Amino acid sequence: MEKANKDFCEFIKDRISKTNRRNSNCAGTALYIVGELEEDGVINKSKSKEILSNLKRDFSPEKGYIVYWGLDGVPFHIGVILDELPLMVVHRSGNNGLLIKDSLDELNSYLFKHTELRPIYKIPSKLESFLI
């Protein structure tokens, strides 16, 4: 299992190096990084909801997992957990924004401090295939 996680982390690092700043948003980039999309680009909330609804949910964050904040499966913001100790998330800051890395705690407190939104963790299908 450790080798599978290492292989998947190499996969997502390669994808991060290929992200496109133009014509992309947080959902398109995060789903591209983990292999749910073939290209990095803008996708709408209904498409991202559809993709996320087909992935298994976990209740604790792990390296390589998708993390998102939303209601009724519709994401408001999405990133990918890259590091543990502390938990660090790579995410795109808005449409065509920079790809940045923040701690999960910072994102929770900064982005959603005035809401009841809590992070939801999804296991990318490619990560599951690395584990088989």
What are the defining features of this structure?
single chain; 132 residues; alpha+beta; endopeptidase fold (from Nostoc punctiforme); 6-stranded antiparallel β-sheet; 5 helices; 25% strand
How would you describe this structure to a colleague?
With 132 residues, this protein is of the alpha+beta class. The chain has a single domain (2-131), classed as Alpha-Beta Complex (endopeptidase fold (from Nostoc punctiforme)), CATH 3.90.1720. The chain is built from five helices and six strands. It has helices at residues 2-17, 26-33, 45-53, 104-112, 125-131, and strands at 56-58, 66-71, 74-83, 88-92, 99-103, 120-123. Strands 1-6-2-3-4-5 form a six-stranded antiparallel β-sheet, with helices on both faces. Helix 1 (2-17) runs antiparallel to helix 5 (125-131). The relative contact order is 0.21. The mean pLDDT is 89.
Summarize the structure.
Helix content is 37%, strand content 25%.
